[in-house]
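Backbone-to-sequence.
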């Protein structure tokens, strides 16, 4: 009897020890993610290239989307933000003296003082601007990777292929129950693969399950359960390393046109001799024009006859 009691006590201590170890381990997961994020926030220069693939599926549809983004920044107001996706293709480059902004799909570009781009972004989206804006925010997203979480957990370590090499990684994840404030329309889990040696994020996966709202103007108001998976692979990660001057130079394509500003999302253009969209006449305070309305029974009504009624 005494032996069985001793074995029970030993097992109990082992369980408590493992539980305490797991708690310490998981407390360290968020701390590690915060330390890694701080490296991106504090970097004086960076060069990051990434590929994002996302899939959205529901009972009635499935879609796939891919983006290639490139973000570089160095002292002296030098930067390069580049992106390609189904939304368009563009590049913003500054050598510290001049900023160039090229929309490849329309072969138009602008010249501005350095530091113009992103301060602030226009309230109305500019055509072809989407992926370039996302490249602009790459460093910000990495520098705030753990800000939404109040806790995180370690998954088993993994070795993955990155930058043409095999890299041993810590794997840190947080789910809906770990968030400081839950997302209103989806349950989301975020997972990061962190290079053990360099403490860089080499891969991230975001999985969301929620309801997709439909436009009540075109369809009845209802929600459709959807599943989304977004996989990001960081093909190049360099922090506080020398960046070649060539990365901050710009040579416009031969068929590109220099414009003062890009067209708006509604088609207005600054290109010389471009058609200007028609504007609606201002009828406020004016008497409506005479109008005759005809009914199906061949009767008619003069709009003028309703004056005073």
């Amino acid at each position: 009897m005494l032996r069985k009691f001793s074995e029970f006590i030993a097992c109990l201590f082992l369980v408590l020890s493992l539980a305490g170890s797991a708690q310490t381990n998981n407390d360290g997961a968020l701390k590690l993610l915060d330390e890694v994020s701080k490296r991106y926030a504090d970097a004086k220069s960076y060069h990051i290239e990434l590929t994002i693939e996302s899939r959205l599926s529901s009972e009635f549809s499935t879609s796939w989307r891919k983006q290639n983004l490139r973000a570089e920044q160095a002292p002296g107001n030098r930067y390069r933000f580049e992106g390609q996706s189904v939304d368009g293709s563009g590049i913003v480059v500054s050598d510290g003296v001049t900023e160039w902004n090229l929309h490849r799909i329309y072969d138009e570009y602008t010249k501005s003082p350095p530091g113009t781009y992103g301060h602030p972004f226009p309230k109305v989206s500019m055509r072809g601007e989407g992926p370039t804006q996302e490249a602009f925010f790459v460093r910000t997203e990495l520098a705030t990777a753990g800000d939404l979480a109040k806790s995180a957990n370690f998954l088993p370590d993994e070795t993955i292929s990155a930058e043409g090499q095999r890299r041993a990684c810590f794997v840190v994840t947080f789910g809906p129950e770990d968030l400081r404030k839950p997302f209103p329309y989806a349950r989301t889990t975020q997972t990061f693969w962190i290079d053990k040696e360099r403490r860089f994020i080499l891969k991230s996966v975001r999985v969301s399950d929620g309801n997709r709202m439909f436009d009540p103007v075109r369809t009845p108001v209802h929600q459709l359960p959807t599943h989304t998976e977004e996989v990001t692979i960081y093909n190049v990660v360099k922090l506080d390393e020398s960046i070649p001057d060539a990365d901050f130079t710009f040579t416009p394509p031969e068929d590109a046109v220099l414009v003062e500003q890009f067209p708006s999302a509604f088609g207005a253009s600054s290109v010389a001799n471009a058609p200007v969209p028609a504007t609606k006449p201002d009828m406020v305070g004016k008497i409506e024009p005479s109008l005759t309305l005809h009914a199906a029974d061949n009767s008619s009504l003069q709009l003028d006859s309703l004056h005073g009624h």
